[in-house]
Amino acid sequence: MNEIHNAERRTLIKNAATATAGMLAGGLLTAMPAHAAVSPPLTFKDIPTAPILNLPFKGLKVGADVRVLNYGLALEDLESDLYVQALQRLTTGGVNKVGKTIPGLGISEMQPDVAYVREFAPVEAAHRDFLRNSLESLFSGLAIKPFKYDFGIETKSREEVLAFLIDVEMTGTMAYLGAIPYLRTNFFTTAAAALQGTEARHTTALTIVQNRLFNGDNPKPVAPLASNNNGRDGTLEPDFVLAKVSPFIVK
Amino acid sequence: MMDLEKPAAPETVSRRTLLARLAAIGAGAAALGMPGPALASGRPLLEIVNIPDNGSFPGIPGRNKTEVVLNYALTLETLEADLYRQALNLAAGKPLTTPLPADVSSYALSIDRGGLFPATAAIGFRYLQEFAAVEAAHRDFLRAAISAGGGTPVEPNPGGYKADFGSNLKSILTVIRTVEETGVRAYLGAAQFIGDKKTTQTAATIYSTEARHSAAINYVLGLDTGPEKQRTDSQALVKQKGENNAEYWLTPEQVLRAVTPFLA
Q1: What is the mean pLDDT of chain B?
Q2: Is this prediction's ipTM beyond 0.85?
Q3: In Å, how far from its chain's centre is CA B170?
Q4: Helix then strand then coil, % of chain A, to nearest 5
Q5: Measured between beta carbons, which residues in chain A are less than 8 angstroms from residue B1?
Q6: Do A136 and B8 make contact, defined as CB atoms within 8 angstroms?
Q7: Pick from B51, B241, B244: which is nearest to A198 by CB?
Q8: pLDDT tens digits for B158-196?
Q9: pTM of the model
Q10: Is the minimum CB–CB distance between B244 and chain A shorter than 8 Å?
Q11: Contact yes or no for A82/A66 (Cβ under 8 A)
């Protein structure tokens, strides 16, 4: 039996981790994006905060809240760009921010999936802008710098695009819920929940369209059934979410 | 609007300005929970967020504010569960008083669609079946959670609940839609009065599905996904361009007043 050289073992482990992350993220056996993804995957600790704001006032822990807001901003930034690329892919094509050409599938704006993508795209952008502007108005330079994203969308079919959008919206829905315990003040609780509710609506609307277009006699539930977690939405930890989306963040 | 491509230059902020900003946040955070004079009373903080500051929950019991909020949620879920039960009974041609069984798969749409297309009506009926069970599950979950915490879950309205459902599926779903959309606003208007974030998270996992239900019923009725700003709504974000960019909130007083017609 041949001994594996240490360098080869590191490569094997790294490739396995990348492949696992890809399968985790896509949930489908789609091709991995061509651009090198940020490596190692982001964790919650990588999200910038402002230690200077953790002053010793009773109940004043805005620094922790800043990290949560930046985490939200990272996800909304990704989602906004995904919607832009999804629209390009579904309709007339275009070039994404990493310079990749996306051939358009030429689907009509009257089709329900295209109509919802068109409708929800500015909402995600508004979320991103709200979070960014909020952070910047607290302290200039506080907001996380935007990334660039490669979703491999140029080879996705119409059905795969929709499935991917639902996956990301569902992840966002649960990511917001999972982030709540990391808030230390209630300054942003109501606002974060206000954004979260719309992600939940998007998840449902897109699932309804998926049922209509692709799922035939086997519609997926559009909201958790009573037997699923008492009919309540699930929560995802920040580290899990960031590991799931990191393969799409270009280094 | 900020250009996302250019990193913002670091600003030199004087310590006094920074502390003044932080003090405003601290004052806001500390002052939250005090009842305001007006029904729909909010407090814009630093021109960013608009937080409800009317923490009055008339008639809702609890040993502390967190428990009051949970009993507030239970009050609404109990109402909602019963209205769903009635709605489903009406739509399935069953007596209004029929209890909700564990399995409603044998139920079938038995009334006029009210102008909804057949496929849409079928979906709408399925949502009544599914969501009736979910609201009952929410109710039961909250009862158990309050009891587990040593509290007393609030009892259902002694006289029961009623609604003017009309006589077809569309009119029934229109009433249900109002209840769901109000529920979303109720949770959002109460969230920041909860004393610990774990409980806030738990409440939010329910709130999230009320938003989902609202979107689903809006779809069946041919309406916007939502939320759509309604007349008495308050914005959570001070500056909000698109109507559907964020959910709206109602104070507990507003909600409890709004659901009075449903109390028999």
Answers
A1: 88
A2: yes
A3: 21
A4: 60, 5, 35
A5: 129
A6: yes
A7: B244
A8: 999 999 999 999 999 999 999 999 999 999 999 999 999
A9: 0.86
A10: yes
A11: no
